[in-house]
Amino acid sequence: MIRMIRADIRRILKKVMFYIICLIAYIIMFTVNKEDTAIDQISKIKTAMELLGSGLFPIAVFIFVYGDEFKAGVIHSIIGRGMSRAKIVTAKYIDCLILQLMCTVPLLLIAYIKDAMSGLPISPQQNIELFWSYVFMYLQTAGYLAFGTMALFLTVSVAGGLVALITFMMVVSDGLKMIQEYITLRVYDFYYDGLVEKAKADLMVGSAPWQLIPAIAVYIVGVLILTGVLFERKELDL
To answer: What global pTM score does this model have?
Structure first.
């Protein structure tokens, strides 16, 4: 499985489009205008980082990891050589996490550079909050990628997985928030995004972010285990 992950990462890092997308995102981050106050500056930098890190990059990473796999019959070939489908699901998801990390860490570094260049009195505490914003942004995208991975392997379609990924990123959270406003059932609070947001809020006030335990256990580990089980039972034309 480790060899497959290494081969996947090397394959993707050879794609010119991967670097073009990263370069465009980093240029956008660099061109974020300076604000008049430290609070506004941090807020604007955080917004830009989150839009690129949890909006653009998860979609790009998903396409780069899975785009060629079904089209070129790579998955079918790997299964034909005897590798378990659960391991394939896990390996591909780890590919997504590694690439997401590689793409988004520079966003955080650029954010710190922009803050330093701003000349504003940004405190160490604000820089720490910026770091935690990045960490929780990454955790959120890890959840989205798990949902997209599940849909992809169950539909055996990159398009199906991509639609699910975008739906969970842009529709489900807002929909559950609206539902929670009108009914007493705390549907959003127990959804992945709600748990991660509560964990972040607790951490910022010095409390333990225990909500991450059920969030990761259920919505990432649980989703991947379920995906592996269901994909093992799925009939494929090999």
So the answer is: 0.91
